[in-house]
Amino acid sequence: MCLPTLYIFNVLSGSKQSIAQHFTYLLTAVSVISLLLCGFAPVTLFFLITVNDYNFFLLLNVAIFALTGILGVLFLYQVMKPIADDDTDQGIKIRTSILRFWLALYGFVGS
Q1: Rounded to the nearest 10 degrees, how much is the dihedral formed by the CA atoms of 20, 21, 22, 23?
Q2: pLDDT tens track for 15-38
Q3: CA–CA separation, 111 vs 50, rounded Å?
């Protein structure tokens, strides 16, 4: 949902990456999040079986989803962070600011 925004802002600021590359980065980040969630499935199952407190179970799931979401977004940030190949320092700062803004937008939409 936020892919066109990221692509358009990056192109306007001088990025040479295609929309397919942006889509691949986002799909990889979502895959990282889903794999981390699968890794936490036994923990969730354990507490589902042993604890009868619904509020604790709800809070546990919120914490797991938040942790995996943050790790996935950090992965996306590391992959998409501009590098100093042919860009000027000003262009890198602008694209990094756009990426940070977009990640906040992505987190807001995801929440």
Answers
A1: 50
A2: 788 899 989 988 999 999 999 999
A3: 28
